[in-house]
Amino acid sequence: MADIVITAANVQPRGGKTTDGVAGATLTAGQIVYLDEVAGTYKLADSNGAAALRSPDGITLNSASAGQPIKVHKSGPIVIGGALTAGAAYYLSDTPGGLCPVADVGTGEYATIIGIATSTTVLDVDIQESGVAL
Q1: 8-133, which class in CATH?
Q2: pLDDT digits (tens, 9 = 90+) for 45-69
């Protein structure tokens, strides 16, 4: 399997909690980000990166270049813009900003659930970090 292919133009919140921030890198709608506390900006999360990178804060709702405003979906339903399997859990990928099924979480990666698909297009975001490397 592979990361979920996300069409940025189709990413839409369906309620839940969002926050505003500033992009710390070039970001595309639908990518998973963490808040860089030192810089105060959002950057791409990564399941096998340094500790901060493994602590995702949410999913980008718009695309932005570094220094531009960004809106981050922190919890609740979101049309993710990609094909999901209803009832399946989706995880932070080892591809920066990526979302993947559990089958793609491999050795050395930290298992972090991003959410559960409530349909083939909607992900109910409820980030849960295991803190455990596989």
Answers
A1: mainly beta
A2: 999 877 777 899 999 999 999 999 9
